[in-house]
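Q: My labmate handed me this sequence with no annotations at all. I'd like to see what the chain might look like in three dimensions before we decide whether it's worth expressing. Could you predict it?
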Amino acid sequence: MLIETSHPGNIGACARAMKTMGLSALYLVSPKIFPSGEAIARAAGAEDVLESATVCDSLEQALAGCTLVMGASARARTIEWPLLTPRACAAQLVREAVSAPVALVLGREHSGLSNEELDRCHYLARIRANPGFSSLNLAAALQVFAYEIFLAQGEAAEETGDHAPATCRDALVSREAGSRERLGAEQMELFYAHLERVLVRVGFLNPQYPKKLMRRLRRLFNRARPDQNEMNILRGMLTEVERKLPAIESPAQQE
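A: Here is what I predict for the chain of 255 residues:
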C-alpha cells in the first residue's frame, strides 16, 4: 500500500518488486500521477499488477477490513512505537493473513508516513541501514519487505506441509476463520472517536491542549489489539459513562 506517491516511475518499480516475489494486491492512496506511461515502463513486465491496482482517496478507505497494519518508515518518532524488523514484520503478516486481511503501508518518497498515518498502524517496521545514509528508494524498500514475505510464506508452507503452488498474494488476502475475531481498522477508528468524546466530556482530555494523549492511547490499544468481545466491553463501558454523565454534571455544565 503506497501513500501519495509523487513519481509514477516509483509506482511501476514497486509493481515490479511485488511481482518478483509473488505479490499482486497493490493499493494506491491518492497517487499524484496514475495511470501513467512511465509507471508502465518501469513495471517492466508487471503491468498486470498496475492494471489491477486499487486507487483510494484516503488511507481509511484503503485499510477497510484490515485487522493488522504494518507501517514502514525510517523516520524517528518522539513517541516510541512497537518496532519490528522486516523479517519479523513479514512473519507476522503471513501468519495472520490466514484469518483476515492485512496491510503493509509505505509513505511518501521524501517524508514517509505522517504521525496521523502511523496512528492507524499496529507496528512500525524499519529497515536497518547505514546510520549516516539510511534513506532507501521507495521500490528498494518495498523489495526488502516483499522478499521477506516470500521467505516467510515458504517457511509457513514447510510447517504446515502444504506445498501446493501458491503465491504470497494468496496468503495475504485469505479470510479463513481464525481463533480470535480481530477487528478491522474502521472499527478501531470508531472506538477511538468514542473514547476521545468521553474523555473530553469527563474533563480528562482538554481538546484545546490535547498534547499526545490520544496518540499514546492509540499506541496502547493497537498494541493490545482487542478482539470483538473485548471491544464490546470497552464500548459498553464508554456508553455507560456517557449515560451516567448527565446525572453527575453540575447544572451549569448542563446549560
